[in-house]
Amino acid sequence: MDRFEVAVIGGGIVGISTAWQLVRRGIGPVVVLEKEDELATHQTGRNSGVIHSGVYYKPGSLKATNCVAGRKALIAFCEEEDLPFDMCGKVIVATSEEEEAQLKRIFERGKTNGVRCSWLSAEELREYEPHVRGRCAVHVEDAGIADYGAVARRVGERAIELGAEVRTGHAVTGLRVDAAGVTIETQKGEVSADLVVNCGGLHSDRIARMGGVRPGLRIVPFRGHYHKLAPEAEHLCKTLIYPVPNPAYPFLGVHFTRMVRGGVECGPNALLAFAREGYRIPQVSIGDMADYLGYSGFRQIMKDHWKQGIHEFACAVSRRRYVRELQKLIPEVRKEHLLPAPSGIRAQAVLPDGSMADDFLIIERPHQIHVCNAPSPAATAGLQIGLTISERVAKAKAA
Q1: What is the pTM of this model?
Q2: CATH architecture, domain defined by 2-45+149-217+359-398
Q3: In Å, how far are 329, 356, 376 from 141, measured between CA atoms?
């Protein structure tokens, strides 16, 4: 059985960045265990590609600090590696008096977080996005677009060059923890390590429980349903166009995103998925559904937010309803402008009282570090989250 200093579970951008940051510090040997046949096939490779600014997040939170620092690290990495990115900026648009009040709070929070942003009147908004209609907006300079799948794969190459080992097709099936370290059981045999780092995303809570850790949450999958604009409608969006998010939810709402490799995507909504990897509506996992249907936190969500759930489902199955949501920002969008686009799944940590964890959550135990909540902006913050975890590994080794 092979022995490593650190074993990282999960080959998304957080996991592979953690491995890279570890070997850069001289910690090793390090192995990454990824269940798919290649890196970045789930949340990393199935998002809108937005480089987030940090404008939304509570000052001092892990999201705020890691997003701002991670954005800078991401841009520097893309420049060094000649990877495509574009700091095109974005507008967050208020369409009502209530939204304007919420937008003012976002604007102040963004300035506190050191994000370059400015307030726009309705007339000034049209200078940035001529086809958008709103009462007012915030223009965020520190926002852009990238290809996170390409970033993760390049980080993987650099990690391998420094001595990390990446094993794809190694789904983890169990963890055994003792005084000497951890034994990780996979479908292709066992690996032992002094310390394991769980970056399992959609399955992070299950992996934590394999190691005897009670994370105090459950991952509930939310499917993000995307469309893309037909070529004749792409001129309607110049940069990134966002609504004011509902503060009751950790989702940012249906938005327009100009993609770094061309085209414009619109979405996602947030629909409960019937499988943790249920990228299509018909995909159902009885085991995954039983996992959250029997959970008190999920039942409380359904009790508190069933009306919103019905609305999200209606938008997912009805293109007409989806268009209505888009028309709140760009009235010229029509049903015939929408073409199918791949969907994504957000791994949302839900607490027993039904609240949705709003910050990154990292749980440490002897010989174990579990990243149990790392949704958006984890892609933007990925390099910095990896650095943060590498620092915690170094401290654990020194203790």
Answers
A1: 0.94
A2: 3-Layer(bba) Sandwich (3.50)
A3: 19, 29, 19
